[in-house]
Amino acid sequence: MRKMMFFCRRRADIDHDQYAEMVLADHVPLALTHHPTMRKYVVNLVDHVPAGEPAYDSVAELSFDTQEDYERRLYDSDDGRRVVMEDVARFMGGADAYATTEHVHRQPTPAGPIGGRSPRVKLLCPIRRNPDLSHEAFVEHWINRHRPLALAHHPGLIGYVANVVDQVLSDGSPSLDGIGELYFDSPRSLRDEMFGSPEDERIIRDDVERFIGHTNAYLVTEYVQKRP
Fold first, then answer.
1. What mean pLDDT comes out for the span 173-195?
2. Distance of CA 17 to CAs 121, 162, 225, Å?
3. What does the pLDDT average to over 148-164?
4. Taking 80 as the threshold, does the pLDDT of residue 101 lie above it?
5. How many angstroms separate the CA atoms of 50 and 219, rounded?
6. What CA–CA distance (Å, rounded) separates 102 from 197?
7. Neighbouring C-beta atoms of residue 102, cutoff 10 Å
8. CA–CA distance, 39 with 88 (Å, rounded to integer)
9. CA 163, 168, 170: angle at the middle one, nearest 5?
10. I need a labelling partner for 175 at 20 to 30 A (CA). Which of 59, 101, 214, 223 fits?
11. Long-range contacts made by residues 70-77, C-beta under 8 angstroms, separation at least 24?
């Protein structure tokens, strides 16, 4: 599937809690109604912004069978487009949008009811490649070389998804090469089981330096709104 990822900022005249309420209570039902080709829909509310990183309030994941389903068949009608866009204007201050190809390396098990808060811990990690590498070389290393290391040396990792950025969809957005998703059972697992040993940590950090120029982790709360 093709996954569109939107890193969203709230309007300056509302706070984060108001923004979250508008998204979950008001916008989600409209999106589910008026985006007929959307196969999967996830809203991630940002709980922690890393120091020095853009201050996003949520990250939306919209998945489609094809790019054309997003570009040409996103809305059910012109009226549906109008309703959705008018609602977005109520709470959205801006968004950085990316078209990605999803690579599921470890499928996170469904957690919680549709529309409800997921009990698991999730990290979203925007990635820029090592400047010595081309985008293609970065992708090859991330998908083929780093994957087995991550699965072997992060013992608490219950889900791992690599989203390769194919296109920046919004003007002026930061250039990214990938967006990682890491899932853990609990805050304790994230804290204590990111690595199994100092040797695990050394192996991962040495490999990360080979292909990543910059990354950081946004802690989010996941709300799965639609599953394929």
1. 97
2. 20, 29, 19
3. 97
4. yes
5. 8
6. 29
7. 17
8. 20
9. 130
10. 223
11. 70/2, 70/4, 70/37, 70/99, 73/36, 73/37, 74/35, 74/37, 74/38, 75/34, 75/35, 76/33, 76/34, 76/35, 76/36, 77/34
Q: What is the C-alpha radius of gyration for the chain, rounded to an integer number of angstroms? A: 18
With residue 87 as reference, give the H or E element that holds it: helix 78-91
> What is the residue-wise DSSP string for 120-133?
SEEEEEEEEE-TTS
Which residues, at least 6 apart from 83, have a Cβ–Cβ distance to it below 8 Å?
Answer: 30, 34
Q: Which of 6, 197, 204 is nearest to 93 (CA)?
A: 6
Please name the amino acid found at residue 43.
V
Count how many Cα atoms sit within 13 Å of the Cα of residue 147 in the half-sphere of its side chain.
16
∠ Cα 111 2 54 (to 5°): 75
Q: What is the DSSP letter of 37?
A: T
pLDDT tens digits for 119-147? 999 999 999 999 999 999 999 999 999 99
Query: How long a stretch of residues is the chain?
Result: 228
Question: For 194, which DSSP code?
Answer: S
Cβ neighbour number for residue 64 with a 10 Å cutoff:
21
Ranges of each domain in the chain: 2-218
Would you say 225 and 60 are in contact if contact means Cβ atoms under 8 Å apart? Answer: no
Identify the pLDDT of residue 112. 81
For the record, the structure tokens of 110 come out as 């469904």
CATH number assigned to the domain with residue range 2-218, chosen from the 4 options 3.40.50.11540, 3.40.50.970, 3.30.70.100, 3.40.50.920: 3.30.70.100
Query: pTM to 2 decimals?
Result: 0.96
